[in-house]
Amino acid sequence: MSEPDLELVKLRKVYPGGTVAVEGFDLRVERGEFISFVGPSGCGKTTSLRMIAGLEDISAGDLLIRGRNFTKVPAEKRPTATIFQNYALFPHMSVRQNIAFGLEVAGKPAPEVKAKVDAMIDTLELGNVAHQSERNLSGGQKQRVALARGLVTEPDILLLDEPLGALDANLRKSIQEELKLLQRNLGITFVFVTHAQSEALSMGDRVVVMNQGRVEQISAPFELYTRPQSHFVARFIGRNTIIDGTLVDFSAAKAVVSTRFGPLSGVPGFNAASAAPGSPAAIVIPSEYVDITPQGSSAHGDEFDAVSGEVTALDAVGQVVYVTVRLDDALEVRIESYRTRIEGRDIAPGTRVDLKWRRERATVVPGT
Ligand SMILES: Nc1ncnc2c1ncn2[C@@H]1O[C@H](COP(=O)(O)OP(=O)(O)O)[C@@H](O)[C@H]1O
Ligand SMILES: [Mg+2]
């Protein structure tokens, strides 16, 4: 394996008041990777990013960039640049001056500053506003200036803290695509913080899911979506049907959970050391793998599990249909299906249905 661009080793942050904001954060990021940090407000995303940037002291653990230990190196000596949600541009300076600022402070010679600023203005298509003040720019333009200002210093790693949070939904979507393209073309490592799971999954090559200062899971988006490793991730990412129970037995390939619907099984989403027979566990099925049929209308073989219930609502949004089903233990689940998949199946509120899925599609996670 090549040397990682960024490495966090048991990173920990305790604020002066005693709040443990980040605990035991281990991560290796390859060069040119786009990594997202996602989790609910207060889970430690910003604190982690600020420790990488050098804007916050590291209480314990190590931070390495391209193999060199930067744990105690001040922010201005780190090969990182940070983009904040509020852009933090200088209002009394033109776009051009804003972009040049970092290089000038670093004492770079004027011809070099000019060449690099010109190139960055070009890359981010800011030519027509280069001499305007920040006050006259749209949200999207401000965002591009903030990016230019960060990238012009040629950081090894660009850190972005909810950089699109202030933009409206349409603009956000288009800047997401722009940002991803820019990152690919530049080949720079991006660490991108967001509280929006859809954004984390669509942008990240890998996603770090955080909860209460700890890492819950680090996976590629599809893996995170289809194979959650904890109850928290199963609830936070995607749209899963979650059935709680007690772990009966497990091997590397298969775990069995005793539930109110009888024994159900799936692929273990935990390592053997972190679960024991008799402990709480849940079966998690991504809703796209759940098939809905009128009760008893289709036989299913050994490779399937099924539970039954009654449809309480159908909500169609374009091709997607959300089917709410009250299972026989009164648990309500909402399944995301497609019009084409349930059409002609006689499914309406009041219909008794079977929900069935391939066991290999289900994941067993520990806890409740
Ligand atoms: N400067 C600070 N002093 C004390 N506690 C802080 C400070 N900044 C953040 N915290 C606390 O640390 C925890 C993590 O916060 P933060 O990293 O901002 O989370 P996120 O960015 O995921 O919303 C929270 O409990 C928050 O209240
Ligand atoms: Mg934050």
Topology:
Layout: E1 6-14, E2 20-29, E3 34-38, H1 45-53, E4 60-65, E5 68-69, E6 80-84, H2 95-105, H3 110-123, H4 139-151, E7 157-161, H5 169-186, E8 189-194, H6 197-203, E9 206-211, E10 214-219, H7 221-226, H8 231-236, E11 240-250, E12 255-259, E13 262-268, E14 280-286, E15 291-294, E16 304-317, E17 320-327, E18 332-338, H9 339-342, E19 352-358, E20 363-366
The structure holds adenosine-5'-diphosphate (ADP) and magnesium ion.
Per CATH, the superfamily of the largest domain is: P-loop containing nucleotide triphosphate hydrolases
**Structural classification:** alpha+beta
Instruction: State the shape.
Output: elongated
The CATH architecture of the largest domain: 3-Layer(aba) Sandwich
**CATH topology term of the largest domain:** Rossmann fold
Unique bound compounds: adenosine-5'-diphosphate, magnesium ion
| Arrangement of strands in the largest sheet | 6-7-8-3-9-10
Mean pLDDT: 91
CATH first level of the largest domain: which class? Alpha Beta
What is the makeup of the main sheet?
6 strands, mixed
Q: Explain this structure to me?
A:
The chain has helices at 45-53, 95-105, 110-123, 139-151, 169-186, 197-203, 221-226, 231-236, 339-342, and strands at 6-14, 20-29, 34-38, 60-65, 68-69, 80-84, 157-161, 189-194, 206-211, 214-219, 240-250, 255-259, 262-268, 280-286, 291-294, 304-317, 320-327, 332-338, 352-358, 363-366. By secondary structure, the chain is an alpha+beta fold. The chain has two domains: 6-225, P-loop containing nucleotide triphosphate hydrolases (Rossmann fold, 3-Layer(aba) Sandwich); 238-366, OB fold (Dihydrolipoamide Acetyltransferase, E2P). A six-stranded mixed beta sheet has the order 6-7-8-3-9-10, sandwiched between helices. The longest helix has 18 residues, at 169-186. The relative contact order is 0.12. The structure holds adenosine-5'-diphosphate and magnesium ion (MG). The site of adenosine-5'-diphosphate has 12 residues, from helix 1.
